[in-house]
Design brief:
This protein is of the alpha+beta class and 138 residues long. It has one domain: 3-Layer(aba) Sandwich (Aminopeptidase), CATH 3.40.630.30. Helices cover 23% and strands 39% of the residues. It is built from three helices and six strands, in the order αβββαβαββ. Strands 1-2-3-4-6-5 form a six-stranded mixed beta sheet, with helices on one face. The longest helix is centred in the middle third of the chain and has 15 residues. The chain is globular. The structure holds coenzyme A (COA). The site of coenzyme A has 21 residues, from β3, α2, β4 and α3.
Length: 138
């Protein structure tokens, strides 16, 4: 699925395995029950009142059907249950689709990390939203 989702963070199986056992990890998958295919997934972590979305991807044939919106909502609900108040994430500057997606969900741009990504080198744009409210944090 990762190979189908340009824009998602290029994590290895070992990267996922190390987080799956870690405190506060939220990992949700959406599976097509009829075709038995993975439609999408979200990986996040909630620690000390803060939540971070670490990776999110929806397979191309399942996009624009509200799947990622539902994955984020479900992840935020779990983060809230673990005491998170704010949710943060980083996106490549050139990933216009993901940036439009997060803006549509009420995330607000909060800064940049210059040259944060490699292959190719690119700035990260940081977004933040309240976990509690349906809209952006004050
Ligand atoms: C970003 C991504 C996860 C969105 O998944 P999705 O399931 O298609 O998103 P949704 O259907 O839930 O979209 C919700 C809203 O986001 C916005 N949005 C989603 N895709 C968009 C696009 N291609 N262009 C503009 N806005 C878009 C829209 O406002 C949309 O609501 P609408 O369809 O009612 O107009 C998906 O495109 C993807 O997997 N991209 C590759 C991986 C990636 O970039 N991940 C993010 C890394 S942090």
């Amino acid at each position: 699925m990762q190979g189908e989702a340009e824009g998602a963070a290029p994590w290895s199986a070992a990267d996922y395995a190390s987080l799956l056992g870690a405190e506060g990890t939220v990992f949700l998958v959406a599976q097509d029950a009829i075709l038995e295919r993975l439609g999408g997934f979200i990986l996040g972590r909630a620690i000390a009142g803060e939540m971070e979305i670490l990776n999110l991807a929806v397979a191309p044939s399942y996009r624009r059907q509200g799947l990622a919106r539902r994955l984020v909502a479900a992840a935020l609900a779990r983060g809230q249950a673990q005491g998170a108040v704010h949710c943060w994430l980083e996106v490549r500057e050139s990933n216009g689709v993901a940036r439009a997606f997060y803006r549509a969900l009420g995330f607000v741009e909060r800064g940049r990390r210059p040259r944060y990504y490699r292959d190719p080198v690119e700035d990260a744009v940081m977004y933040e939203r309240s976990v509690l409210a349906a809209g952006p944090a004050p």
